[in-house]
Amino acid sequence: MSWWKFFRPKQKPKPTRGDLGPKPIETLMEQVDATPDRPIPFGYKMSWLAVRSSDSGSVCDALEIDNLQPANWKAGYIAAYNGHSFISPPVNGWVLLVGHELPELGHPPHERRWTSLMASLSKKFGVAQYFATHRVSGLDAWACYQGGHEVRAFAYCDEVLVNRGEVTAGELELDYDYLDPSFSVEVSELERGVPNTFVPDEEHTMKVAGRWSVNPQLLDQLDTQPGVGWIGNLGWKSKSER
Known about the structure:
Elements: H1 4-7, H2 17-20, H3 25-28, E1 46-52, H4 56-61, E2 63-71, H5 73-80, E3 85-87, E4 94-98, H6 111-125, E5 127-134, E6 139-146, E7 149-157, E8 160-164, H7 169-174, H8 189-192, H9 202-212, E9 229-238
Antiparallel strand pairs: 1-4, 1-5, 2-9, 3-4, 3-9, 5-6, 6-7, 7-8
């Protein structure tokens, strides 16, 4: 890791697909396919929630979602990367809500809405987790709520934006330098001889997700049955908050 990363001028993050607004479903596919299929890996340049539930319909019911319709993994993947939201079939006891429509951890205008969403979902389902990556802007983030309360929240974009709560066992197992309170940026990566631990990157986010719930990059390696989820447009609040 070269030193220029720490001294280069801050760049304004480029807009994500969600910033530009969703493309109409009709322009993405002739018909939304609801034929059951197996999970497709995702995660890069994306944000998602992992909600502890075995019923994707219940997760949909807990949210304000417009234009809701059944969709399989392939159709949901296309929709999510083009500004819509995909609520997945259950995967190992977790329902994944995927899309750029989610409010962003570490972005002040989104803070109240992000907190409201995480608190209400974790209150209803016990556990709700948040993850985000965007390699262009350098954003990497993860958070966990349990029973309506924040347990852990971390976000990084050229600097640490959020670092709340105790570092979890899953994070400690990964042994990343930036999670060690005694770590100093004055000690270079080459001097430590440990590559890819100096600052967060998208692979770190995937691995934290895997320790906490499901690594979305490994979905195709799981022993799961074909299933169908839902696509739609996510409102900012849960129904309990309206």
